[in-house]
């Protein structure tokens, strides 16, 4: 008797189950070897037939297109995803379409996760319109480990009677648990992304009756059961149970108020029972918060009015709170929009004239959203980048003046041509989420639908602001302020070579990213040749957020100064104990960083007696043990002069970044005993010079200072 679907070989059309099913004994190994969950038919060409359960054009696919189709009977092992990097490769497919497709089986690997795909090589054949397969009910715990989760890969399933257990994730929206273990709910669907971008993730503790979605084996770790995610397609796939009121379709009128305008805030408020009251909580120019009640205008619609500020340039922050009646739940609950007012609030600036770029960009909230998200605005700035970004014409950056908060990127249009240095005034819509460039521009404040413009003048310039790599690090408190602005980092070293960008560090020791997505061919070629340890004098570019990370976008070789103030010094060592020093200024002076090949725990300084230490200081000498002979290259800023305090008797010292004659040591008090500078190369020997990175004994007849330069 056949044990697996793959044991049943069909003529013509192959069952999807035959492609997908994997032995349980192999799934037991998948969590440790990260490959035993792969299809046994990888690289084979097959023809599959099924019903489309995820249509084309709905979920993120980069520049490409993807869809899922499922065996008409549903159940385990019954669905497969097809992707093509060419967005025109497949016809427009809707849920319920019966399709037949021919291609080869492949595995899409992301970290520890493997997802079986059909890479279609022939035109998709649309056969009919059929009944959607029955959705299988599973527990959240079923989607945590390969032995139970792999069978549901790409299949439409439903989890029931869950509770939100987390909502603070870098990529996923929230986690739910039905008591069998939590699973992540993700927003691969554009529809779901837009919905939660508007309403925020549900609060922890929210009851959700059911969630329908397909199972995505994508990134994550087996160690914390995050490799499988549930991907609902539409907001209607999530049925909320008891919990606090939720708000959606939040708007204000006018979107860009003047000082004399009263501002109407409107939204839809829903609850499992009844909403008792709602209010707008707001503050003007950082003063104490006050509240104004909202009125139910019919159905789920509520509105309230914030009074005019009467102040030119006043900044208003606000959020909405709603209270339910507590029916069919543990008690009365309060919902907030945005969901966590300590991380994000809505807002606006009241001005009689046009907004500045800083008005649009500035936010005091860590969520980083523009207070004018969704508003039509008119802004002026100088073109600092364009028009070839990601290979697409008509993407520009403009900046009003040097410094943070003063830059923004915007869409042009077919035929739009601006020149670097043009001062332009453009009209467009502020957008934190651009569905046309989903994921590339997510959470990057941007102007879209720009059509009206005026070139005011030409040959202008904006100076970049010089910052540290720590200022531009992903977790920096300052990072959002530089979005869209020209920045420069100096004296940097390439710290990591990533798939799409490069990590660099300066004296702060904290890494930021540089990228070539906006670079011309010459700059892209230079960046492509970088190696770990390469030093660069400076890099300038537009700082932006795309593909989930902040990075400096280099434009041309004019943005790169290949020369550097940094120096690299090779320090030789022999096997066993060596006298060493630190010949350059570095951020991290720990011996394991400076001399990574040394034997751990063997760094000793001398201060009347030997003391075991972990960090090297310029000017001091140390004993350090190496397991074998070799050489260490140490990179840092050059040291041209050192003043060293000596104690009466023997001292361990080291020199500067260049070789120095002992006779040139400045000794104003004559404390150095002549002929008592000794180096060590297996045996002691008097030395007439101090070489960079080497340690030396020196004898002083009294306490005092000497200078090496």
CATH class membership of the largest domain: Mainly Beta
Largest sheet: 6 strands, antiparallel
Q: Using only CA atoms, what is the Rg?
A: 32 Å
CATH superfamily of the largest domain: Nucleic acid-binding proteins
Number of helices: 7
Average of the residue pLDDT scores: 91
The secondary structure category is mainly beta
Distance between the termini: 86 Å
Structural shape: globular
Q: What is the share of helical residues? A: under 10%
For the record, the count of structural domains works out to: 5
Q: Return the CATH topology of the largest domain.
A: OB fold (Dihydrolipoamide Acetyltransferase, E2P)
Q: Report the uncertain regions.
A: none
Please provide the count of β strands. Answer: 52
Structure description:
The relative contact order is 0.05. With 709 residues, the chain is mostly beta strands. The chain is 6% helix and 42% strand. A hairpin with a 2-residue loop joins strand 24 (388-389) and strand 25. Strands 1, 2, 3, 4, 5 and 6 form a 6-stranded antiparallel beta sheet that branches. A 5-stranded mixed beta barrel has the order 8-9-10-12-11. Strands 16, 17, 20, 21 and 22 form a 5-stranded antiparallel beta sheet that branches. It folds into 5 domains: 1-240, Nucleic acid-binding proteins (OB fold (Dihydrolipoamide Acetyltransferase, E2P), Beta Barrel), CATH 2.40.50.140; 246-350, Sandwich (Immunoglobulin-like); 357-457, Beta Barrel (OB fold (Dihydrolipoamide Acetyltransferase, E2P)), CATH 2.40.50; 465-561, Nucleic acid-binding proteins (OB fold (Dihydrolipoamide Acetyltransferase, E2P), Beta Barrel); 567-708, no CATH class.
């Amino acid at each position: 008797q056949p044990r697996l679907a793959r044991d049943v070989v069909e003529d013509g059309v192959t069952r999807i189950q035959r492609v997908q099913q994997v032995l349980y004994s192999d799934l037991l190994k998948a969590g440790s070897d990260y490959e035993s969950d792969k299809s046994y038919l990888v690289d084979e060409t097959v023809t599959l037939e099924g019903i489309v359960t995820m249509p084309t054009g709905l979920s993120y696919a980069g520049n490409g297109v993807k869809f899922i189709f499922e065996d008409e009977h549903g159940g385990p092992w019954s669905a497969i995803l097809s992707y093509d990097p060419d967005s025109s490769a497949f016809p427009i497919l809707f849920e319920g379409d019966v399709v037949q497709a021919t291609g080869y089986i492949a595995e899409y690997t992301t970290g520890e996760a493997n997802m079986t795909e059909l890479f279609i090589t022939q035109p998709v054949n649309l056969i009919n319109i059929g009944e959607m397969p029955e959705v299988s009910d599973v527990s959240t715990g079923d989607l945590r480990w390969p032995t139970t989760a792999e069978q549901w890969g790409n299949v439409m399933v439903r989890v029931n009677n869950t509770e939100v257990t987390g909502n603070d994730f870098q990529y996923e929206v929230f986690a739910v648990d039905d008591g069998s273990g939590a699973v992540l709910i993700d927003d691969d669907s554009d529809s779901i992304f837009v919905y939660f971008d508007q309403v925020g993730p549900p609060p922890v503790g929210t009851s959700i009756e059911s969630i329908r979605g397909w199972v995505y084996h994508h990134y994550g770790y087996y160690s914390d059961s995050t490799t499988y995610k549930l991907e609902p397609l539409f907001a209607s796939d999530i049925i909320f149970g008891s919990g606090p009121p939720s708000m959606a379709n939040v708007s204000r009128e006018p979107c860009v108020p003047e000082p004399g305008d009263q501002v109407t805030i409107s939204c839809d408020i829903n609850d499992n029972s009844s909403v008792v009251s709602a209010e707008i909580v707001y503050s003007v120019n950082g003063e104490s918060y006050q509240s104004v009640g909202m009125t139910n205008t019919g159905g789920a619609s509520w509105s309230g009015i914030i009074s005019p500020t009467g102040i030119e340039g006043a900044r208003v922050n606000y959020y909405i709170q709603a209270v339910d009646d507590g029916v069919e739940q543990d008690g009365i609950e309060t919902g907030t929009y945005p969901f966590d007012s300590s991380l994000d609030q809505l807002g606006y600036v009241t001005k009689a004239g046009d907004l500045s770029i800083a008005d649009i960009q500035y936010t005091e909230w860590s969520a980083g959203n523009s207070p004018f998200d969704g508003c039509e605005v008119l802004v002026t700035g100088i073109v600092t980048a364009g028009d070839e970004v990601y290979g697409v014409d008509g993407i520009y950056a403009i900046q009003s003046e040097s410094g943070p908060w003063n830059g923004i990127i915007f869409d042009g249009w077919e035929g739009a041509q601006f020149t670097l240095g043009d001062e332009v005034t453009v009209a467009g819509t502020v957008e934190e989420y651009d569905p046309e460039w989903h994921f590339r521009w997510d959470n990057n404040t941007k102007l879209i639908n720009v059509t009206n413009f005026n070139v005011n003048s030409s040959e202008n310039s904006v100076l970049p602001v010089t910052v540290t790599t720590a200022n531009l690090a992903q977790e920096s408190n300052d990072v959002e302020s530089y979005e869209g602005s020209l920045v420069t980092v100096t004296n940097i070293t390439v710290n990591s070579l990533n798939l799409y960008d490069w990590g660099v560090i300066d004296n702060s020791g904290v890494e930021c990213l540089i990228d070539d997505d906006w670079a011309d061919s010459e700059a892209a070629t230079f960046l492509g040749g970088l190696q770990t340890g390469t030093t660069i004098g400076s890099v300038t570019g537009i700082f932006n957020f795309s593909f989930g990370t902040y990075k400096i976008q280099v434009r041309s070789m004019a943005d790169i100064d290949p020369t550097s103030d940094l120096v690299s010094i090779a320090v030789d060592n022999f096997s066993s104990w060596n006298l060493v020093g630190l010949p350059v200024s570095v951020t991290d002076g720990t011996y394991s960083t400076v001399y990574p090949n040394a034997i751990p725990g063997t760094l000793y300084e001398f201060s009347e007696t030997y003391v075991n230490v972990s960090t090297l200081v310029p000017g001091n000498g140390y004993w350090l043990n190496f397991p074998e002979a070799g050489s260490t290259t140490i990179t840092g800023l050059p040291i041209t002069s050192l003043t060293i305090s000596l104690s009466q008797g023997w001292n361990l010292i080291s020199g500067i970044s260049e070789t120095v004659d002992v006779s040139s040591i400045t000794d104003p008090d004559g404390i150095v005993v002549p002929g008592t500078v000794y180096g060590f190369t297996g045996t002691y020997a008097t030395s007439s010079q101090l070489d960079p990175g080497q340690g030396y004994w020196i004898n002083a007849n009294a306490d005092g200072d000497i200078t090496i330069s």
